[in-house]
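Ticket closed. Logging final result for Response regulator transcription factor.
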Amino acid sequence: MADRTITLLIVDDHPVVRDGLRGMFASDPGFDVLGEAAGGVEGVELALRLDPDVVLMDLRMPAGSGVEAIAELTRRGARAKVLVLTTYDTDSDTIPAIEAGATGYLLKDAPRNELFTAVRAAAEGRTVLSPAVASRLVGAVRKPATLAARVLSAREREVLELVAKGTSNREIARELFISEATVKTHLTHLYGKLGVRDRAAAVAAAYDRGILG
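Final structure:
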């Protein structure tokens, strides 16, 4: 990557953040910002159309979450590497993002040089984690038995609660205003985190571990 310009897409719901990042990268000839998006849905669209080397992705956005966008880009085989750039470093944010396919995870208080280095590393396919996130992942690996209960995202909990009520995928999609494909993605993540293979087992495991009820 040292011999060519790294192209970027910025996905963040705050205009001032997008402006700041664009200005920062514009100051270095080694980077080229191809576009900006204010939410995950638009971010996926632009990433597939513009084909950047790296997508800088926020997580909590009204117009489509970052985790859902990362999972969709992974599902559709996008070439771009996703580097999460957010203010959130809880288990329920970091682990789902990495499981969905993020190459790296940085916090927004990262110094400029650290961010530039992380983007270059991500473009090369190398994993980049902020120290706080790395510590959380190490802790999660050391406590696998309690991991699932702590890392379910808010949306995954919503899907799980509806599944427990016997709601179909189509009805879940309608109630949560998401696509059936996204519901299936959430279920896949739930099965993996709970160590089960189907809806009934997921509900049983959730009650057994105190996630539901």
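The first helix runs from residue 15 to 26. No further action required.
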